[in-house]
Fold this protein.
Amino acid sequence: EDSDVEETAKSMGAMQRLFLVMVVATAFTGVVDACDKGACQDYGSEPKFDSSDRPPSAAVLGRATWTMLHTTAAYLPDNLKPEEAAGFKDLVSSVVNLYPGDGARLIQTIIDDPSFRTEFDLTDTAEHAQLVIWKLHNAVNVAVWPHRWPFPDTMGLNTDYFDLAGGLGENQMTIMSMTPVVRKEVLRALNKRWVLAGGLEEAQMSRRDAKDLPPDRTMLGRAFWTYIHTITMYMKHRPSGRELASFRAIFSAIYHVYPCPVCRGHFRKFYPDAAVQKELISVTTKHSAILFAWKIHNVVTARGIRTGQWPDKHMFPQEKHLQFNISQFFIPPPEGRDQLHITLPCTGKNAKSSATCLSKRDGFEVIADVQGRWQIEGGVDQPLSDEPSTPSCDPPSFGQRLLKLDMYVMGKCPWCAKSMERLADNITCDYQCTRPDGRVLKARLDFQLHMVGLNNGTYRHPWLRAIHGSSELVGERLEMCAREHYSRDYQYLRFMKCMDRNVTTIPLRAPDCADEADMDLDLLVACANLDGERFVAQSYGYASWMGIDITPTFVINSHKKMVGLPDNFTDILCEELDKTPWSLLRANREYPSMGVSTHDTLKETAVWSAVAFGIVCFMASPFVFALDRARRKARIVGERRSLLKK
């Protein structure tokens, strides 16, 4: 009987543990689905088909800049030498002088506060530098997000302490007035957030862009290059002397205070080179700044390739006729060879690029490629979205598949017109196709059309340039207005298909096409005059942010990118549809243009929660019954033992 009791107790314990594991596993399944296998850890907030090779948005640039400033301050020596203090201050000042858009004006306002300016100028220790950046970052956050708690949020610091941009600096927390306890707690939080255990010379982490973790060498390098390349993109074509001095000072700051000692040592080996110094001094325009940053980045990459650190990398850009090789960027160069010089263009009639010089034409092509990689048309201060205000289709019903298709075109692109002719009649809210195995797949189609072009101005004050001339721009304004006012059931595609029948006559076909598509021509013309430029500018900006410069380009489900329209496009689309998620929760994150409402997501969450609970109860019922039976048996055995003892 004793053995029966022990066996029963063991069985009860095992069943309880098994049941607990089932419950925990079910809970964690929901967590993983919510984060989409680690998407919560991505750098920035907009991962698409290739987030690492697209121009940085305002959020990504801001994160890179704070990573650069905080990490630099965190790894400074305890007591700064004059050149180290100057390097740190130059790095911060470059943000004031060169940061694009509204960010520079905000930081300038904060630094111009007399008390903060004094604290900044007195920077002579690592702790003081960390606190300066901490205070600056909190002041920016309070100005942009006044309802957030200042960092570290566990301390409950008052937002008024950091309201320097709002003109309330008289209540600010000065660094000198901080109590030892508060100072120690803030520095502890900063070190935990920005200092990597073991130092930056250690091997990189497996997730180089993990959020809210101390940066490793790769993250830090990426942050610096993101900052340097992006500020050159938005420079004035003729920068002021102050701006040029700030640009040059960035590289001097890297020489003196770059946080990674290994990387700083590599930089110090080539930066003093006479040719490099001559090229830096020769930077007087936006284009020369772009070329200098491009060359220095390739020099660093070439060394990594030569030493085996980055065997899979290559020189940028990789054009068919621009055959750059790593030996052109060795500094100092091997004996008997010379480096590529960017201030000495190849001379002579019809001069071509060589191993040591760039022709003017190739120099401009390099600049264009670098701009395509790092610049958003119209700047970073714009809404990086491009869709009509009214969704084309109703929200998907419960259990309905979702398929997203983005098409990038130019208004008078002949190949875009051919693609539109093939696709327009097949773009419907209720899409279906047949797989090779005979299965018929149905889905709600989220189709979005985007324009590709240039904006030499800003989003607020655009200076648009359509690739095929001014008539193309007029046509694009009309087509974007058709998309805005006739988005339901993709009615605007009828207008575009009509316009594309003969692209040489755009926009003269607009009256006939408006009549054919059952649209109000007066409404389209009024919209084109009032809002058309803004719609096109927003579309240009979005397309460049997505890294699209060739048309037509198609992107399926935000990850599969195709240039041109292949003959088997329908089969490719159907194959991708077979992989399309069912979840409305994912639809709300990945397909916001479908108009998935909170009510729909809550409804689906409730339904699936009920289903999951039912499954768990069904699976657990045998164990519950067995557990109840075991308990009754144990009670009976105990009662029998008590009677025998009596």
